[in-house]
Design brief:
Elements (H helix, E strand, L loop, with lengths): L24 E3 L2 E3 L6 E5 L7 H14 L3 E5 L3 H13 L4 E5 L3 H9 L4 E4 L11 H11 L3 E6 L5 H7 L4 H17 L5 E6 L3 H14 L5 E4 L5 H16 L6 E4 L5 H14 L8 E4 L10 H11 L8 E5 L5 H7 L2 E6 L2 E6 L2 E7 L3 H15 L12 E4 L2
Parallel strand pairs: 3-4, 3-10, 4-5, 5-6, 6-7, 7-8, 9-10, 11-12, 11-16, 12-13
Antiparallel strand pairs: 1-2, 13-14, 14-15
Helix pairs in contact: 2-3, 3-4, 5-6, 6-7, 7-8, 8-9, 10-12
Bound molecules: iron/sulfur cluster (SF4).
Iron/sulfur cluster binds next to loops.
Length: 387
């Protein structure tokens, strides 16, 4: 099969828009800004002071494809753990600081790749901006100004009455101006709200008024199903305009799930190379096999595969052969049999009971020919519904 092009693109896939031009930052080894790919972040849920548990979770996030990780730092014990965590983590670590300026200095000293501060919770910071800017400059540590609707600066709450898009953007820009007064510009901004409409508008306002890189997030987006949808629509609306340099999907679910969703959003918009895609039909009254079961079994069998392979799982002969032909690999089922397609050619016909194992075998073979490890590190394959 080496003479066929197995889904390897010859030109970069199209994107919906050019990135908004921003300043460029370096968060540890990861470039952030319009000259770098949009990166995926998540946040650990462990007690940061539990160094082993935190590093274990960071390792899981790294394996899932996370680019940058944030850790909470609410106590001195957590601050004391930052140095070991930053040193041993394979991906850049951002310390998340509220209320206590001394932890900002501790995080910078500890070698964290960046520090996140929340203008609503840093009243005490404002008279220390000069020192923070100096320490961050000395260590080359970027600062993320992370405004959150739930902790909006009291002054702006009084001015606007609630966390409006204007209030969120003004809070962030005001804080950024305090750093800019001290000639510090290594800044990334987020203005999170749980309502995608408010959040999108806030980022649009921000994007029009500054050239800092922006970190996108719908905060407190909810459990996995709701949070995935809210994040996907909000990020999609912004990325469509080229707005967004890092993203975090906030879910009431294990952080690895956040990374999978974030990567999937970026892959869907061609902002990341697409990996394995399962193209499966929704089934209907014409189905001649149990499509759900077949799609689930193929998905489970190929979990973790990282090659850009499209595998079509179709329930009948109406759209089956067409979709199966368009994919790198596919099956069109009917009459108790499955026709197996590789790049548009029927390579074999197998009994229904052998469809799953045959597809998995063929997928593994193609993956190896594509030169990528079969047990790649990018998480589960995607499922695309057609029909
Ligand atoms: S391929 Fe289309 S027509 Fe055939 S079973 Fe699936 S949904 Fe129905």
């Amino acid at each position: 099969m080496s003479d066929v092009m197995l889904g390897m693109p010859t030109t970069p896939p199209p994107v919906l828009s050019e990135r908004r031009k921003t300043r460029q930052l370096q968060v540890g080894s990861v470039g952030v800004g319009s000259d770098s790919p949009v990166s995926v972040q998540s946040m650990t849920t462990t007690v940061t002071a539990d160094i082993n548990a935190t590093l274990q979770q960071i390792a899981e996030l790294t394996a899932a494809g996370c680019d940058i990780v944030r850790v909470a730092c609410p106590s001195q014990d957590d601050a004391d753990a930052l140095s070991a965590i930053a040193r041993k983590s394979q991906i850049p670590v951002i310390a998340d600081i509220h209320f206590q300026p001394k932890y900002v200095f501790a995080a910078i000293e500890a070698g964290c790749a960046a520090v996140r501060v929340n203008p609503g919770n840093i009243r005490k910071f404002d008279d220390q901006v000069k020192e923070i800017a100096q320490a961050a400059k000395d260590h080359g540590t970027p600062i993320r100004i992370g405004v959150n609707a739930g902790s909006l600066d009291k002054r702006l709450m009084e001015k606007y009455g609630k966390a409006t898009p204007e209030a969120l953007a003004e809070s962030a820009l005001w804080e950024a101006s305090l750093f800019a007064e001290h000639d510090f510009h290594d800044i990334k901004i987020s203005v999170k709200h749980n309502d995608p409409v408010v959040m999108v508008r806030a980022y649009e306002l921000l994007a029009a008024q500054c050239d800092y890189p922006l970190h996108l997030g719908v905060t407190e987006a909810g459990p996995a199903f709701q949070g995935t949808i809210k994040s996907a629509v909000a990020f999609g609306a912004l990325l469509r305009q080229g707005i967004g340099d890092t993203i975090r999907v906030s879910l009431s679910a294990p952080p690895v799930e956040e990374v999978k969703v974030g990567l999937q959003i970026l892959q869907s918009l061609n902002l990341r190379p697409r990996k394995l895609e399962i193209v499966s039909c929704p089934s209907c009254g014409r189905a001649q096999v149990d499509v759900y079961k077949l799609a689930d079994q193929v998905t489970a069998g190929l979990e973790g595969m990282s090659v850009p392979l499209r595998v079509a799982v179709m329930g009948c002969v109406v759209n089956g052969p067409g979709e199966a032909r368009e994919a790198d690999l596919g099956v069109a089922s009917g009459n108790g049999k499955g026709q197996i397609f590789v790049k548009g050619q029927v390579v074999k016909t197998v009994p229904e009971a052998q469809i799953v194992e045959t597809l998995i075998e063929e997928a593994m073979r193609l993956a190896e020919e594509m030169g990528e490890p079969v047990d790649g590190e990018s998480g589960a394959p995607t499922v695309v519904a057609v029909g």
